[in-house]
Design brief:
single chain; globular; three-stranded parallel β-sheet; 3 strands; mainly alpha
Length: 98
């Protein structure tokens, strides 16, 4: 029985995260990917589903800045403010910009 709807590519990524990154590594991605990371690897994430809190909304604003027109340097500086070590872009984000 499969408890999570995780395709093979995501499963490979999650296994890599669990095996190749430090336990204290912090990840930023979209809500779906970060929820899988948190649930299946116990790694820290910058986005949390309880975004009704003002500080969580600020995290969303900063974390999703990679979708805007800012330079990659500016985006990375903002993500580092959230202690992000890894930014994971979903396939849809990459294909939309190709």
């Amino acid at each position: 029985m499969q408890l999570w709807n995780v395709d093979n590519m995501k499963l490979d990524m999650l296994q890599w995260i669990a095996n190749a990154t430090e336990a204290q590594a912090v990840f930023t991605s979209d809500m779906t990917i970060t929820s899988h990371i948190r649930a299946l690897t116990s790694r820290s994430i910058t986005l949390h589903p309880h975004y009704e809190h003002a500080s969580a909304r600020k995290h969303f604003q900063v974390a999703y800045s990679f979708l805007g027109c800012a330079s990659s340097t500016h985006v990375w500086q903002r993500l580092r403010e959230l202690r992000t070590d890894f930014l994971i872009l979903g396939r849809a984000f990459v294909l939309d910009f190709a």
